[in-house]
């Protein structure tokens, strides 16, 4: 909700003259070209990181020792199918609980 407001504050250099400036006109654009560029760059950057974690996270995020469904010491993938639609694993939620994969993805998304 506050992304556009924070980008507006972050892209304009703070100067003492800023407070003496006249208000924006009624028909002026709210989002400048510079803000639009920053929004696009950050959305591509964030999307890349989140998609990388969704599809490659199980290959490098370590799982705590003793958690049964770990694969070679790494977390179990949160998704149930590959990109081709093939089953990735048998559901194990009933016995072990859900995977931590999507919790990590969501946490990284919030921090971004």
Please tell me about this protein's structure.
- With 112 residues, the protein is an all-alpha fold.
- The chain has one domain (3-111).
- Helix content is 43%, strand content 0%.
- The protein is built from four helices and no strands.
- Helix 1 (3-11) crosses helix 2.
- The longest helix has 24 residues, at 33-56.
- The chain is elongated.
- The mean pLDDT is 78.
Helix- and strand-based class?
A: mainly alpha
Whole-number average pLDDT? 78
> Main β-sheet, in a few words?
none
Oligomer: single chain
Number of self-contained structural domains: 1
Descriptors for this entry?
4 helices, single chain, mainly alpha, elongated, about 0% strand, about 110 residues
Entry summary:
With 112 residues, this protein is mainly alpha-helical. It has 4 helices and no strands.
Blueprint of the fold:
Layout: H1 3-11, H2 33-56, H3 93-96, H4 101-111
Helix pairs in contact: 1-2, 2-4
């Amino acid at each position: 909700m506050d992304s556009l407001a924070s980008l507006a504050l972050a892209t304009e250099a703070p100067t003492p003259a800023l407070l003496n400036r006249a208000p924006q006109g009624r028909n002026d654009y709210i989002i400048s070209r510079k803000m639009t560029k920053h929004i696009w760059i950050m959305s591509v950057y964030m999307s890349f990181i989140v998609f990388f974690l969704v599809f490659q996270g199980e290959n490098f995020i370590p799982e705590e020792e003793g958690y049964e469904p770990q694969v070679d010491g790494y977390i179990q993938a949160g998704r149930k199918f590959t990109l081709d639609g093939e089953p990735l694993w048998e559901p194990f939620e009933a016995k072990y609980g859900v995977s931590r994969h999507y919790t990590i993805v969501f946490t990284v998304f919030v921090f971004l």
